[in-house]
């Protein structure tokens, strides 16, 4: 059966771990002749390059969201070209897309486990990235929250918080679940809404939104939302997907 490949754009140092982390038939990255390609079972039913392009972009957006969540220094990858591989293994042309910005990225190294005898073995279990991708594909709210979190602005962090808050039934449920405390959430929301605290970066311009006594920094806000987001996603899986990886 012919297959589609979406070539990924980025530096080799940034892309070389993806084949170790994305290995499932649904979403995987392979290296061929020094280039890295995204494969997906979702491409199998598509016949037009434009369809593959649109679906590839959606998958890359998911990959960017979950990888950024796992690594603070992740900035993003993009698509570079589309190739159709026929049954005879020949590649009949390559559709190059518009120039994309090259952004430096870094992904986690492959997961290893320590056996009882002290030896290290490469795990055959889904990587943290694959597990998180699975959750994001299953729940649109998770994909949206991760996407907003990745934008890393006061407005986008607040949107990620709103998604979680609405999904669980309100701020009181976040607190009841033990994901955060009332004082931290109030300090975050009051800072995010106050122009007196953030200037034009605030969600509102009205003077009625007063800042807290000690406005929160963006770094603190990011850490707070990441903690709430982690615990929320964990609640949807009932298993720990944030495993520690080693180089």
Any overview of this molecule?
- With 247 residues, the chain is α+β, with helices and mostly antiparallel strands.
- The protein folds into two domains: 3-96, Alpha-Beta Complex (Palm domain of DNA polymerase); 139-237, no CATH class.
- The chain is 45% helix and 15% strand.
- It contains ten helices and seven strands.
- It has helices spanning 12-15, 18-21, 49-70, 128-138, 140-151, 154-168, 171-176, 182-193, 195-198, 218-237, and strands spanning 3-9, 28-32, 35-39, 78-85, 91-96, 112-114, 120-122.
- The strands form two sheets. The chain has a five-stranded antiparallel β-sheet.
- Strand 6 and strand 7 form a beta hairpin.
- The protein is elongated.
Q: Biggest sheet: strands, sense, closure?
A: 5 strands, antiparallel
Distance between the termini: 36 Å
Query: What is the topology, as strand order, of the major beta sheet?
Result: 2-3-1-4-5
**Helix count from the secondary structure assignment:** 10
Strand content: 5-15%
Structural class: alpha+beta
Specify the helix fraction band.
40-55%
The gyration radius over C-alpha positions equals 21 Å
Output mean pLDDT: 79
Q: How many structural domains in the coordinates?
A: 2
Record field, number of beta strands: 7
Q: Give the CA-based shape.
A: elongated
Give start-end ranges of low-pLDDT stretches.
93-116, 239-247
List the secondary-structure elements in sequence, H or E. Answer: EHHEEHEEEEHHHHHHH
């Amino acid at each position: 059966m012919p297959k589609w490949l979406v070539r990924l754009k980025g530096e080799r140092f940034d892309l070389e771990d993806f084949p170790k982390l994305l290995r499932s038939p649904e979403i995987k990255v392979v290296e061929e002749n020094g280039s890295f390609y995204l494969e997906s079972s979702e491409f199998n039913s598509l016949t037009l390059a434009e369809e593959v392009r649109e679906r590839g972009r959606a998958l890359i957006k998911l990959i960017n969201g979950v990888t950024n969540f796992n690594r603070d220094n992740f900035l993003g990858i993009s698509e570079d070209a589309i190739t159709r591989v026929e049954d005879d293994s020949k590649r009949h042309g390559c559709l190059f897309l518009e120039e994309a910005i090259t952004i430096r990225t870094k992904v986690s190294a492959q997961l290893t486990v320590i056996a009882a005898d002290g030896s290290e073995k490469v795990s055959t279990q889904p990587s943290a990235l694959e597990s998180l991708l699975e959750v994001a594909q299953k729940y649109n709210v998770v994909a949206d929250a991760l996407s907003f979190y990745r934008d890393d602005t006061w407005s986008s962090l607040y949107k990620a918080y709103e998604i979680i808050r609405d999904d669980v039934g309100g701020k009181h449920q976040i607190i009841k679940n033990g994901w955060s405390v009332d004082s931290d959430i109030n300090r975050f929301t009051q800072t995010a809404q106050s122009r007196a605290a953030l200037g034009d970066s605030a969600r509102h311009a009205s003077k009625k939104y007063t800042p807290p006594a000690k406005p929160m920094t963006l770094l603190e806000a990011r850490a707070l939302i990441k903690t709430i987001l982690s615990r929320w996603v964990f609640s949807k899986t009932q298993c720990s997907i944030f495993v520690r990886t080693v180089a």
